[in-house]
Amino acid sequence: MNPMFLPGVEQNPQPGAYRDAIQTMQATGAEYPQIWHLFAFRPQATQHLARFTQEILRGPAPMSPGIRELIAAYTSYGNECPF
């Protein structure tokens, strides 16, 4: 997996669930969302973004979570964003 362009963020995770998840994924050689580095770097500052994203993609809505994920993926593709 290509590193982010923020080595200070990637190399300084704070204790918590995202740091643990990153370490687990790295140990198995699995890919993981690079935004996890930001969540691990400043958990208190990013907790609102994580909750917002979870609510938008997984909370109650007229569209299924799968359709919402598809819309997000298509939008990212259109923006040439790897996320």
Question: What attributes characterize this protein structure?
Answer:
mainly alpha, 5 helices, 83 residues
Topology:
Elements: H1 7-10, H2 17-28, H3 35-41, H4 43-58, H5 65-78
Helix pairs in contact: 2-3, 3-4
Can you walk me through this structure?
The protein has one domain (9-78). Helix 3 (35-41) crosses helix 4. The model has no long low-confidence stretch (mean pLDDT 88). It is an all-alpha fold. It is built from 5 helices and no strands. The longest helix has 16 residues, at 43-58. It has helices at residues 7-10, 17-28, 35-41, 43-58, 65-78.
The largest β sheet comes out as: none
Overall morphology: globular
Query: Please, how many helices?
Result: 5
Estimate nothing, just give the exact number of structural domains. Answer: 1
Q: What is the helix content?
A: 55-70%
Structural class: mainly alpha
What is the terminal separation in angstroms?
Answer: 13 Å
Q: What amount of the residues lies in strands?
A: under 5%
Element-level helix/strand string = HHHHH
> Quick check: average pLDDT?
88
Radius of gyration: 14 Å
Number of strands: 0
In brief, what are we looking at here?
This protein has 83 residues and is mostly helical. It has helices at residues 7-10, 17-28, 35-41, 43-58, 65-78.
